[in-house]
């Protein structure tokens, strides 16, 4: 258990001191807090081995001790008395999620996680994990059986329960009927369906649901009368290796609106499968043909006919609505098995309509009944719909058990995704559980009583209950917005009931209800009859930037705000009681607004006067307050328009400041270019000229204007799986400008972020405007005011040289460091290069500066219509640029690997003999010296450059070794010694066999793969290589990419990419000045596989000596540190001959024991002083130990080192590993010094050498 977790426990006891209410339930073991520390879930293990949990919020217990686990068919419980807690780990995650569509554009994904690993020594399953996550708006937990662990075990039931601490009030989902509730918990008897919404007091609300249901039956809850205990009654899947249960979720809020606004369910689902591009998914409003059949207006009769459909499409296009939904019977009677969903009655008209809709910019949805969906091959049907160009599928009346329906729903959703179809499930669908994160095309489902469904209407109280119960689960298709509310002969055929609502309430409900497609049930003429309300509908331009429940109470009323790019929209609705609502406008940004208020008329009533309304327009600010009058069963609609200064600036400067205001940028828009002036402490540093592209060999032309801007600020931290620091700060301000060219009105988006560490920007191309276009050139320029000094290398593994900007020749690899003045350095580079062509930098065509040059053409479709980030880091010292290199990681997407326990950094030694005997000797040496891995480099499967060499077999290259090599035996031996095996594979075998070797290596027990001589630079090579990293992650294989690849931060997204070369390492015998150049330049972009040598002859003849090699091991960061590169253990046999034969023998002494103990990952990193190419002093902390590396490429130098970075007032013992004599490069001298954190130490460094100062905190201090 780590110290941070212990701190959590101590905090809990401090928090609870004196709280008698809590004391009786105080758990004995493990607690997980929400990030804001207001919620806590405590896990207790009892003497019989059973686990229970308790949930508290704001110092009040809401769920008492409740059971966890499973009951097997053998009647055993899991876990039980024989089970042991094998390990407990925790982590903090501070990420953000940007959904394609949803309630808001940016979602915080902040949680604390606890994982309890349970071991069953005597039976099955062998192991189980309990994973608990705490968010600010609730908790979730799930059960996992690790992959490959034991046999499948049959389960009788799940033991999870919710033992509420009081007799609270609850509401439940109730199919296509009014919700069950309110009812007291003790009055509930029997089964209930989620969502279960609970009111536990005036400031305590909870919702019980599940997320990410992969297997097993959907959640059912059960209670016995007279109790406040609810248990899970749905049968889980059997416990087999790789099993993961659904997340059991307890949402919490101090108001019911917090539950409705939550994204917790989506966050517990995985990101979309990388195989699918969902950029085509567009939410919006739709018109509908189902409730208007037979309606007559001005001599025109609506029906299921092409003329009616055209009329609806024209109306949708006129209003900016995205879709028309064709409902049942277009291909024949929906319940008849002879109705062919592809060749049915009106299939020809439908195809004609699809073409017409495309011309008008309106997508067409097609209804499909379960009868036709199952009788006719569903794959062919959905493919045909996709080929026709349909926008989506409304799937009705699905049959089967709930578990069967869930499987069928998932299958249809994926098939729809494959064919670029949205999907809406109707008529008793499986409840939503956050799956729209994984499948953004699953835009809604009828998990509610939809208005007029089956010709039935619902009451006002039903609506204001459903939004706090059903809608908590996800988007619901509720069909609000009926404007013909009369009784008798209306536009609604066969309706004898009036709609118990008001016109204003019906319009408001379309906004309040969250759905990816809002389906309007009435005819166009009835909407045109009420222009103010139609304007409110047309203003609903999804996706929403922000959504917030401003006020509300379950079953009584709700006030919802949703923000678009150019307006804030507010909808309010009440139950059968009228009410006055005070609405402060403090949710608005600072500024003036035009506010249109549409309210019920003074005499409006949902039963007697439904159509009465009044409209007012006012000029208000965010400091004002409105009072809304809602009639019984009525509502209110507000359109709050942003001023032009908030929306559109045609020619202007858009300022941006960094979080501390250290840096600022002026983004100047107007004319052919968009320029960004970057200032540091008020002084101009650089001008970036953007949008200089050539597409299909033609320069991107036109004058640019801004049509929209979005701003946001982010202040968060996240914990890397490994790194140069244990916590990374991610703080920036961002502006996103939508730019339009007067040449063909094409649109692009320029996103600009400003951190205290520097500037970053990227381009996004509108998909419709730039469909399948190719970027043939990009000339983004970075211009300086003077002819600055810079350091460049043309190759990733090349040597650095110093020159002036005016003297640049050829293209330089990034990052490129430029000295602006005596106290200011910048680094120019790129981040998040995943599927684009690599950028290099060449001399700018005008002025003093550099400009981008691509390493190949870019197909925008393959690149996802956006570029990597281009960045300019700024610091007062080149070492500070390297210290701030987390900036590059922050520009990449968060970690996509759910379980990273298998990703383990460490030192690596190369096995050089390629023999069984030598391998075992090397493994023995690694085990004895705490070296984590042994690498089998080139030659183990044959000649690496020979296309015939088979990387699925062990066939030693005879030019490297005579063998024999029994690799399975070696791996088995390594496992017994706790040493991991890594293997090298050349690009020739990688390209031919990647999909074959990765699962095979996983089966063999290989821990990682070194990708050798990979192709880099062009778009195909870049995309292929990162896909190869993702594929390796699937099989829990770590990766090292060798040769010309330089990182751009992808190790944040896929941390199985531990390291990469792209560096002039010890294979090239670099001089010490080149190593220091490398440190200050190359290491800005991330970890470098340096292949550190120690005993090899080149260390003393060409490099800085062995003490310098120790220093390099600290200074040059790599989570996998490849050590003793040209050396072999003393017991390892010498190779008689062969390419790259290694003769130097490793000799153990105090220096090598220290060399073997140097960490490869760090908790803190600081660059203390230095000078480009001359010397460097780097301090890194691991735990409480500090390692200070000093490298000196010049003459003898005295370094006075203040130790004020030792924060704790404790005594330290320092051990100095250094070279005392210039002539004895092969000797590492050692001396000890005692000091405390107020000390200053003076180090005399001889020329061309290095040293390491190891500061260890005294135990007694």
From TrEMBL:
Organism domain of life: Bacteria
Names of the cofactor(s): Ca(2+)
SUPFAM superfamilies: (Trans)glycosidases
GO MF annotation terms: carbohydrate binding
Keyword Calcium appears in the UniProt entry: yes
Alphabetical keyword list: Calcium
Keyword Calcium assigned: yes
Cited Pfam families: GH97_C, GH97_N, Glyco_hydro_97
UniProt-listed Gene3D superfamilies: 2.70.98.10, Aldolase class I (3.20.20.70)
Domain Glycosyl-hydrolase 97 C-terminal oligomerisation as annotated: residue spans: 544-641, 1161-1255
Glycosyl-hydrolase 97 N-terminal domain residues: 32-269, 656-894
Ranges of residues in domain Glycosyl-hydrolase 97 catalytic: 293-446, 914-1063
Subunit structure: Monomer.
Protein name: Alpha-glucosidase
Species per Swiss-Prot/TrEMBL record: Parabacteroides johnsonii
């Amino acid at each position: 258990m780590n110290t941070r977790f212990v701190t959590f426990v101590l905090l809990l006891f401090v928090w609870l001191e004196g709280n008698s209410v809590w004391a009786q339930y105080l758990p004995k073991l493990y607690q997980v807090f929400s990030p804001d520390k207001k919620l806590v879930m405590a896990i207790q293990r009892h003497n019989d081995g059973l686990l229970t949990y308790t949930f508290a919020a704001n110092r009040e217990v809401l769920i008492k001790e409740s059971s966890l686990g499973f009951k097997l068919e053998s009647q055993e419980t899991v876990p039980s008395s024989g089970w042991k807690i094998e390990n407990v780990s925790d982590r903090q995650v501070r990420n953000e999620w940007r959904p394609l569509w949803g309630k808001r554009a940016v979602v915080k994904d902040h949680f604390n996680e606890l994982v309890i690993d349970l071991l069953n020594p005597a039976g099955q399953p062998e192991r189980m994990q309990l994973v608990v996550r705490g968010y600010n708006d609730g908790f979730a937990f799930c059960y996992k059986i690790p992959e490959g662990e034991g046999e499948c075990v049959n389960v009788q039931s799940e033991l999870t329960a919710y033992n509420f601490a009081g007799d609270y009030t609850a509401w439940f989902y109730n199919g296509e009927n009014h919700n069950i509730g309110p009812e007291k918990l003790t009055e509930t008897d029997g089964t209930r369906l989620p969502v279960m919404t609970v009111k536990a007091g005036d400031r305590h609300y909870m919702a019980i649901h599940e997320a990410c249901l992969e297997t097993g039956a959907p959640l059912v809850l059960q209670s016995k009368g007279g109790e406040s205990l609810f248990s899970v009654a749905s049968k889980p899947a059997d416990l087999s290796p790789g099993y993961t249960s659904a997340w059991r979720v307890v949402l919490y809020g101090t108001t019911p609106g917090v539950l409705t606004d939550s994204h917790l369910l989506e966050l517990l689902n995985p990101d979309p499968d990388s195989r699918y591009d969902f950029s085509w998914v567009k939410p919006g409003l739709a018109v509908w043909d189902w409730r208007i059949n037979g309606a007559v207006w001005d001599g025109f009769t609506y029906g299921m006919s092409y003329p009616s459909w055209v009329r609806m499409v024209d109306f949708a296009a006129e209003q900016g609505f995205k879709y028309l939904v064709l409902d049942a019977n277009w291909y024949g009677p929906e319940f008849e098995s002879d109705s062919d969903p592809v060749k049915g009655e009106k299939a020809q008209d439908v195809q004609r309509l699809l073409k017409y809709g495309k011309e008008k910019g309106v997508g067409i949805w097609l209804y499909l009944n379960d009868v036709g969906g199952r009788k006719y091959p569903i794959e062919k049907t959905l493919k045909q719909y996709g080929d026709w160009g349909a926008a989506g599928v409304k799937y009705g009346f699905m049959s089967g058990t709930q578990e069967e329906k869930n499987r069928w729903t998932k299958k249809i959703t994926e098939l729809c995704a494959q064919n670029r179809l949205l999907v809406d499930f109707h008529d008793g669908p499986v409840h939503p559980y956050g799956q729209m994160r994984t499948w953004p095309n699953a835009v809604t489902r009828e998990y509610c009583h939809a208005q007029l469904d089956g010709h039935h209407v619902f009451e006002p109280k039903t609506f204001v209950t459903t939004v706090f119960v059903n809608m908590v689960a996800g988007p619901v298709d509720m069909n609000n917005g009926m404007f013909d509310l009369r009784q008798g002969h209306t536009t609604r055929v066969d309706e004898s009931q009036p709609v118990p609502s008001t016109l204003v309430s019906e319009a408001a409900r379309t906004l309040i209800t969250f759905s990816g497609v809002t389906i309007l049930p009435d005819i166009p003429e009835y909407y045109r009859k009420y222009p103010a309300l139609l304007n409110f509908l047309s203003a609903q331009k999804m996706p929403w930037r922000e959504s917030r429940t401003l006020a509300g109470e379950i079953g009584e009323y709700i006030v919802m705000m949703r923000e678009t790019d150019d307006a804030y929209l507010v909808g309010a609705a009440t139950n059968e009681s009228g009410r006055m609502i005070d609405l402060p406008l403090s949710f608005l940004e600072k500024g003036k607004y035009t506010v249109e208020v549409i309210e019920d008329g003074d005499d409006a009533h949902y039963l007697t006067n439904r159509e009465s309304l009044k409209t007012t327009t006012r000029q208000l600010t965010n400091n004002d307050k409105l009072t809304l009058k809602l009639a019984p069963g009525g509502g209110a609609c507000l359109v709050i328009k942003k001023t032009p200064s908030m929306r559109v600036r045609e020619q202007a400067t858009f300022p941006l400041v960094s979080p501390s205001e250290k840096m600022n940028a002026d983004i100047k828009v107007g004319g052919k270019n968009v320029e960004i002036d970057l200032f540091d402490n008020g002084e101009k540093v650089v001008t970036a000229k953007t949008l200089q592209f050539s597409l299909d060999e033609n320069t991107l032309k036109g004058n640019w204007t801004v049509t929209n801007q979005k701003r946001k600020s982010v202040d968060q931290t996240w914990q890397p799986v490994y790194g140069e620091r244990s916590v990374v700060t991610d703080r920036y301000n961002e502006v996103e400008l939508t730019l339009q060219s007067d040449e063909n009105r094409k649109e692009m988006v320029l996103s600009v972020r400003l951190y205290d560490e520097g500037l970053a920007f990227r381009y996004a191309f509108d998909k419709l405007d730039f469909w399948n276009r190719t970027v043939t050139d990009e000339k983004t320029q970075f211009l300086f005011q003077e002819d600055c000094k810079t350091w460049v290398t043309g190759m990733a593994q090349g040597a650095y040289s110093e020159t002036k900007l005016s003297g640049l020749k050829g293209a330089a690899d990034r990052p490129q460091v430029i000295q602006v003045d005596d106290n200011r350095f910048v680094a120019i580079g790129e981040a998040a290069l995943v599927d684009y062509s690599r950028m290099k930098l060449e001399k700018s065509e005008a002025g003093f500066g550099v400009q981008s040059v691509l390493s190949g053409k870019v197909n925008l479709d393959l690149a996802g219509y956006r570029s990597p980030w281009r960045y300019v880091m700024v610091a007062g010292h080149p070492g500070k640029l390297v210290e701030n290199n987390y900036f590059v990681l922050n520009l990449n997407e968060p970690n996509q690997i759910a379980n990273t326990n298998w990703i383990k950094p460490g030192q690596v030694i190369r096995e050089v003999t390629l023999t069984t005997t030598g391998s075992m000797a090397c493994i023995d040496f690694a085990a004895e010296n705490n070296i984590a891995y042994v690498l089998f480099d080139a030659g183990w499967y044959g000649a690496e450059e020979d296309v015939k060499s088979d990387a699925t077999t062990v066939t030693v290259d005879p030019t490297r070794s005579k063998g024999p090599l029994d690799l399975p035996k070696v791996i088995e031996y390594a496992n017994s010694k706790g040493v991991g095996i890594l293997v090298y594979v050349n690009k020739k075998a990688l390209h031919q066999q990647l999909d074959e070797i990765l699962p095979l290596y996983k089966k063999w027990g290989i821990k990682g793969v070194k990708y050798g001589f990979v192709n880099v630079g062009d778009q195909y090579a870049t995309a292929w290589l990162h896909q190869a990293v993702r594929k390796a992650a699937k099989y829990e294989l770590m990766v090292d990419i060798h040769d010309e690849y330089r990182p751009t931060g992808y190790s944040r997204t896929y941390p199985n990419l531990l390291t990469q070369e792209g560096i002039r390492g010890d294979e090239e015998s670099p001089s010490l000045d080149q190593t220091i150049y490398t440190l200050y330049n190359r290491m800005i972009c991330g970890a470098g596989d340096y292949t550190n040598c120690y005993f090899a002859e080149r260390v003393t003849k060409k490099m800085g000596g062995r003490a310098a090699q120790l220093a390099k091991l600290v200074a040059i960061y790599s989570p996998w540190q490849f050590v003793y590169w040209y050396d072999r253990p003393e017991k390892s046999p010498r190779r008689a001959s062969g390419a790259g034969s290694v003769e130097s023998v490793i000799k153990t002494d105090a220096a090598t024991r220290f060399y073997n103990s140097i960490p490869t990952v760090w908790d803190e990193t600081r660059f203390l002083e230095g000078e480009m190419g001359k010397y460097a002093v780097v301090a890194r902390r691991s735990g409480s130990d500090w390692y200070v590396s000093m490298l000196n490429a010049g003459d003898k130098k005295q370094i006075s080192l203040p130790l004020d970075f030792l924060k704790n007032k404790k005594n330290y013992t320092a051990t100095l590993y250094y070279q005392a004599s210039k002539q004895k490069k092969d000797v590492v001298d050692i001396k000890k010094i005692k000091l405390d954190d107020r000390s200053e130490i003076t180090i005399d460094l001889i020329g061309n050498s290095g040293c390491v100062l190891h500061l260890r905190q005294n135990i007694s201090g």
